[in-house]
Task: structure prediction
Amino acid sequence: MKVQYRLVALALAAASLPACSSDDAADGNSAGAAALAGSAGRGGSGTGAGGRSTGGSGNAAGSSQAGAANGGATGGRAGTDGNGGAGAASGGSSGATTGGAGASAGSGAGGIGNAGATGGGAGRMGGAGATGSGAGGATGGMAGGGVAGASAGQGGGAGAATCAPPAVGSKGMNPLFTDQYSADPAPFVEGCTFYIHCGHDEGSTDFVMREWFVLKSSDMVNWTRALAMKLNVFSWVDANSWAGQLVKKGSKYYWYVPVNQRGSGMAIGVAVGDSPEGPFTDAIGHPLVDDASEMENWNFDDPGQTPFTIDPTVFIDDDGQAYLHYGGFGRMVQAKLGDDMISIVGKLAEQGLQGFFEAPFLTKHAGTYYEIYAAGTNPATIDYATSSSPLGPWSRKGRILDALPGVQGQDAPTNHAGIAELAGQWYLVYHLSNGPNGGGTYKREVAVEKLTWNSDGTIQKITPSGGLTF
Result:
């Protein structure tokens, strides 16, 4: 079986080695954090439910909790028909983005017009229905004032305008938990809560994983942990609660996880729930992707020819289109998902990515797509690449995290990371293999660090710390 082939390859690789911003809630899918943000298109005048009003000041017309801070301070031209004014030139510190966007995102009678794709997509653009993102802008914008700002996708979150930052002087701890082991984290932000969905390490000499946890915090210092889903949610599975990711579309939460298909190799299952904390059920009743579908896709005649079907990441773009990336052992696969979130549209396609080993995480910041991934081979570094499209081509840009030290006498450690924003601060989630309480390659522990963007869109390198400080 393919899984045996892959495990042998992994063992050989390990033997040759030495001993997881408020201005870009587009990457998140909050439920329209600023409920009033659409009231005037935030970057100028006359949008929101008002429609045909004229210019006015951005502070009044483009206000709301988020608008006044980020929107055009002086609404710009007297935009009739709800066009939101110019706003860009005088849009305050982020006016070029927020104010300018008001002209299009907040435009149209009653703030409906273009709000869907533009406003929702950036989450920071006026009239788009709060700070909703992903596909949600369409819903939020349609509300005219973005009262709900519905959402779909992952990452970013609600933005600083409505979420209080962590208390000054507060301090967290890395790893987040040491009484039980957790691994392969993926962040998800909704409202003012930061969630981490991760696996539960139970083995000592191998990856024994039969369930997934959800960790959550509203202040990034105090965390709770709960059992979110067990392997037996999928009746066709017999092992491996490995690295997955949860996203939201409409009112549903979809969790994409790699699991071992009974009688076959690794496959991707989809669970669905009404809350990021569950309960979850099998959304399809069979794999979304498995050896059989991959063989048919590429016209292969041997399961060993297919890419390793692990580590799915899903991203929902501004227009509501969802993308699936997955893979390991240097082969990354990309595809579009159907509107139902449980089907593949078109063909699976391999995409080259310099240094890629495994653990892709797809997101978006300031209009650029970012792929965070484990690079090289174990012990892997965490690198990142960028593209103007969620389907690439990808250009490797730098390193976020160096390879982590392991435990003497054990296999080389893995790493798996993702990024998301809450209250104006971005964070990197990843796991340690050398944490306290007898950690190791098969006893990993989730940790969180602050992530900083440079003005040119690059990411500053991170050094693991003993915990977040504010």
